[in-house]
Write a structure and sequence with these properties.
Layout: E1 5-9, H1 17-31, E2 36-40, H2 44-56, E3 60-65, H3 67-77, E4 83-88, H4 94-99, H5 105-108, H6 110-114, E5 116-125, E6 128-130, E7 133-137, H7 138-148, H8 155-167, E8 171-177, E9 180-192, E10 214-220, H9 224-230, E11 245-250, E12 252-257, E13 262-265, E14 268-272, E15 275-288
Parallel strand pairs: 1-2, 1-3, 3-4, 4-15
Antiparallel strand pairs: 5-6, 5-15, 7-9, 7-13, 8-9, 8-12, 9-10, 10-11, 12-15, 13-14
Helix pairs in contact: 2-3, 7-8
Amino acid sequence: MDRDVVLIVNPSAGGGRVQRLLPGVERWLRVHGVAYRVQRTRDIEHARELARAAGAAGEVAAAFGGDGMVGAVAGALAGSDGLLAVLPGGRGNDFARAAGIPRSPVAACSAFESGRERAIDLGEVDGRRFVGIASCGFDSDANRIANATRIPGAASYAWGALRALAAWKPATFELTIDGEVRSFKGYTTAVANSSVYGGGMYVAPAAQLDDGLFDVVTVSGVSKLRFATQLPSVFRGGHVRNPEVDVRRGAEVKIVADRPFTLYADGDPIAALPATVRVLPGAVRMLVP
C-alpha cells in the first residue's frame, strides 16, 4: 500500500479492549512493512480533527474503537480524498459485521495489504454524520440504559432492551419518507444505512451500505409479551416477516413523535426529535479486506 496509516485509537473503547489489542496490531503492521503512527483520542471531536488531518496528509485514517469512533472518523472524511479503515475495538462492532470486516482487529489489518476500496453511504442529521443506524422510541431508552451499564460487550444492549421494555409505553410517530407521510403507534423507528446494530441485531437485514437509500424499519404496537418473545428473531433478521414490522426505503426521513425522544446513531445520541435524516451517497471511501 502506498499510503501511511494513522491509527486513531480510542483508549477507553470496549472497556480498555483497544489498549490490550493495540500491541498486536502494531506488531502486524511492523512485520508487514506498513508505515504507521498512533494517535490517541481525547474525545469524539478530537477523533474528527485527527481524521481530517490524516485525510489532508494523504494517510489512511484507521478508526480503532467502537461504532461511534467509526462514525466520527467516516463523517470527518466525507467528501474528501481521505481513505477510511476500520479496526473493531468496541462493545458491539456492528459496522464491521455489516461491512464484512473481521471482528479481530489484527485480522482486519489484512485490508492494508490486500484490501480494496469501496465507496459507502453515510447518514446525516443536523450536520452530524453516522455510518450505521439512527433509531428512536423504544431504542432511545434501550440505548441510554446500555450506555450507562458496566456490563461488558454486546450483552449490555440486551440488558438495555429488557430494562427499557419494563417501563415502555407506546408512542405515536409520524414519518415523512421522501415526501410520503405515514403515522403509526408502537415501539421503534430505525433509519438504517447498514443492516445491524445493538451487538448483532439485524434490524434491517436487507440494508446496503452503498445503494444510496435507507431501509426504514418500524415496529407497531403489540403486547410486551409478543415483543419480548420476538426479540431473539432480530439477531437473525427474521422479525421482518412479522405483521407488526414495516420496512420501507427512502433517501430522506423526517421523524416526529408525540413525546420527546433522543435519536441515537452508532450507539450515541445524535439529535432530539423532530429530526430529519438524509443519506449522503458514496460519501466516503473505505478499505475493506
